[in-house]
């Protein structure tokens, strides 16, 4: 709709104005560069994931039960409130998710989406961390701090959020399997 399109563009413009404001406050273009380093590669990694060329390492596939607890302590719930809306995908140029027919389809779609986002953000996080390390190595501490701040906000928190989603899906699937086994025993 026209009203939601205007809202999306208003949010995009607000993001650009905020970035320009950060540049002005910093007295340089460093915040823009740091944003580009921490956000830009996500599109490339999404393309690689969609082609089947990018996967999680085997040791990161399972989510440990302690992870959601740790992530809650560092504020992942706030990030979830920001991105768990239908506006977020549209703002980033994606179609809003379709209405799903049943619980199984919903779990599959949510898990696949969470895995894709986790992989793309984790790869970008690693690449931006290398960039920040290079900045530190050459003595550009301010640049490194900007990259690290944007990297944590734009990639670190999303990785944690997706791992929480995947853990919850594992729990829902496990409880459904236990219920199904109990139903079979009753028959």
Helix/strand order: HHHHHHHH
Helix content: over 70%
Q: Could you say which overall geometry the principal axes of the C-alpha atoms support?
A: globular
- Would you tell me the structural class of the helices and strands? mainly alpha
Question: Total number of helical segments?
Answer: 8
Largest sheet: none
Write up what this structure looks like:
There is one protein chain. With 187 residues, the protein is mainly α. Helices cover 79% and strands 0% of the residues. Helix 1 (2-26) packs across helix 2 and helix 3 crosses helix 7 (103-137). It is globular. The chain starts with a helix and ends with a helix. The model has no long low-confidence stretch (mean pLDDT 81).
Protein traits:
single chain; 187 residues; mainly alpha; globular
Question: Layout of SSEs?
Answer:
Layout lengths: L1 H25 L3 H10 L1 H10 L15 H8 L2 H8 L3 H5 L11 H35 L3 H46 L1
Helix pairs in contact: 1-2, 2-8, 3-7, 5-8, 7-8
Brief rundown of the structure:
Helix content is 79%, strand content 0%. It is built from eight helices and no strands.
């Amino acid at each position: 709709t026209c009203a939601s399109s205007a809202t999306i563009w208003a949010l995009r413009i607000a993001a650009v104005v905020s970035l320009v404001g950060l540049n002005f406050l910093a007295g340089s273009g460093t915040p823009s560069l740091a944003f580009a380093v921490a956000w830009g590669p996500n599109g490339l990694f999404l393309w690689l994931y969609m082609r089947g060329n990018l996967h999680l390492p085997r040791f990161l596939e399972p989510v440990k039960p302690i992870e959601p607890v740790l992530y809650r302590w560092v504020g992942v719930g706030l990030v979830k409130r920001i991105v768990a809306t239908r506006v977020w995908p549209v703002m980033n140029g994606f179609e809003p998710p379709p209405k799903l027919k049943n619980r199984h389809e919903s779990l599959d779609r949510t898990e696949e989406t969470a895995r894709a986002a986790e992989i793309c953000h984790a790869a970008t996080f690693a690449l931006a961390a290398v960039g920040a390390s290079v900045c530190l190595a050459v003595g550009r501490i301010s640049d490194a701090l900007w990259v690290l701040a944007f990297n944590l906000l734009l990639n670190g928190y999303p990785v944690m959020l997706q791992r929480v989603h995947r853990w919850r899906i594992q729990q829902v699937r496990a409880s459904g399997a236990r219920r199904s086994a109990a139903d079979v025993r009753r028959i």
